Amino acid sequence: MKTALPTRGRATAAVLADLKEFGAQDPNYKEGRLWSLVYYLDEDYADFMGDAYREFSSANGLNPTAFKSLKRFENEIIAAVAEMFHGTPEVCGVVTSGGTESCLLAVKTYRDLARARGVSKPEMVLPTTAHVAWFKASEYFGVKVRLLPLDKDLRADVKKLPRLCNRNTVMILGSAPDYPHGNIDPIEEFSAIALKRKIPLHVDACVGGFILPFMEMNGRKLPLWDYRVAGVTSISADVHKYGFAAKGASTITYRNLDYLKHQMFVYQDWPGGVFASPALLGTRPGGAYAAAWAAMQHFGKSGYRNLAKRTTQAFDKMRKGIEKMPELYVMGQPHGPLLGYGSCDPEVNIFAVGDQMDAKGWKINRLQAPDGLHAMITASHLEVMDDYLRDLKEAVATVKANPELAKTGSAATYGMMSHIPLRGMVRQKVLDMFAQMYKAGGEAIDLNEQPPAEPGIKGQINAVVDTVAQWYVTRQQQKVRRK
Ligand SMILES: *Cc1c(COP(=O)(O)O)cnc(C)c1O
Questions:
Q1: CA–CA gap between residue 79 and residue 451 (Å, rounded)
Q2: Are residues 320 and 268 in the same domain?
């Protein structure tokens, strides 16, 4: 796949034709077959986003004083979000490039706020279901994670929270909802503890921020998680998820400027000039901000309420449909719009069910601890829900009738990865796979497929790891059966 830059440039039409062709091999999200990654409505709406983006695709929000238009988008997006989350007029914030940037910024901000008070060994408390972006932030910014475990109903075990806090705790995190199971953490209980100990509390509403407020407006009873809860000091919310903006737009808001101040970066001695930046990026994509603003103007409260209504219908339908299948169970008590489900029948390997679903043309994410399959449900899924549930029922029956399916395909890989006791080996294997993909001339590898055996000592080590893992998984399965 080595492609040099063409010696002679090509006509734009030919290049665009190539783009279309490359896209043809991607997951079929336009017909609702994909259950993560993409929020899609229809071609007209995609064109609208493209137009809004194009208008500002050269504009740069690096210097917020240069493009008045971009600062206006930012002000209006932040003001709208503050109102959606029941903030006071003091709520302020920044538009970022995505949820990960928003999460990274919160950790940097609270680390530096605590540093100003003399904390040199920062820690933060994360429920185990916190999005990976928080673990990334821990690594990037040197803030140690204290993990808050889940109780038997897969809810963050708030009773254990006080013991995890100490003088070095720079922040506590809650999610609304969490990505793996779609559960809203008990934010009011977190808040009571955070207020008592004067620790900032961030709510990660990256995925929920643009749907939960509208589910509530539609009459759905949900636990409180936004600025109505006194201890909540900041909230992240992605416009490029349930806000249906083009990719590249999220928000982070703070209860007041005393927090946001610590997010700012200024360097006054650079030969290139005095430099100030409110967020992580240098160049900030004007197109993404324009598209986010355009999406919010187009939907308004009525449009988002309508999307939330269809999404909730799809979610309820899926939840009930899965609960009706005796071999499966829905994880925890999800508030939506995401859920995880697993197998409660020792003869049904849930990853093998996932493989059967993949074979039927669906694309479904895998969960671990506990093992399961995942669904991020959007309004467009309402139309395919009957097909999905019918195929799921068939997939379960096929796996039950063919136990050997648990030893092949992704069932083998994920079974191994989620059970192998030596997690360091899993980490190393995944790092190796990424190295394969990103080395010069590397190609994408499908995690669902078993990698080909490698020659040499490394291949032998990998083969031994696989054998140990297989043995371990088989033993675990036998244990389950005996129970
Ligand atoms: C998606 C998500 C993120 C990260 O957002 P990206 O836009 O993918 O970087 C963070 N937290 C939660 C809960 C999410 O669902």
A1: 49
A2: no
CA 50 to ligand 1 center in whole angstroms: 22
Residue 14 inside a domain? The answer is no
CA distance 5 to 111: 43
**Mean pLDDT for all residues in the chain:** 92
CATH number of the domain that 267 lies in?
3.40.640.10
Q: What domain range is 146 assigned to?
A: 53-297
Contact 255 CB / ligand 1 (< 6 Å): no
Q: Name which residue sits closest to atom 5 of ligand 1, judged by CA.
A: 99
Q: Which atom of ligand 1 is closest in space to residue 240's alpha carbon? A: 7
Instruction: Give the angle 285-289-292 at the CA atoms, nearest 5°.
Output: 140
Query: Is 315 in the same domain as 456?
Result: no
Report which ligand 1 atom has the smallest distance to the Cα of 238.
7
How far apart, in whole angstroms, are the C-alpha atoms of residue 483 and residue 478?
A: 9
Provide the domain count of the chain.
Answer: 3
Instruction: Give, for ligand 1, the residue of 126, 179, 187, 235 to mutate: max count of ligand atoms closer than 8 Å to Cβ.
Output: 179
Q: Helix 286-323 to helix 43-55 angle, to the nearest 10 degrees?
A: 150
| Each residue's pLDDT tens digit, 148-157 | 999 999 999 9
Is residue 47 included in any domain, yes or no? no
Index of the ligand 1 atom closest to the CA of residue 207: 15
Pocket test for ligand 1, best of 207, 242, 247, 250 (most atoms within 8 A of CB): 207
What's the pLDDT score for residue 59? 93
Residues 6+ apart with CB under 8 A from 332: 153, 154, 155, 181, 182, 183, 340
For ligand 1, say whether the CB of 207 is within 6 Å of any of its atoms.
yes
325 and 387 housed in the same domain: yes
State which residues of the chain have pLDDT below 70.
Answer: 1-2, 420, 422, 444-483
Indicate whether 432 belongs to any domain.
Answer: yes
- 40: in domain: no
Q: Provide the whole-model pTM.
A: 0.93
Q: Please tell me whether residues 447 and 345 are part of one structural domain.
A: no
Q: Which atom of ligand 1 is found nearest the CA of 103?
A: 10
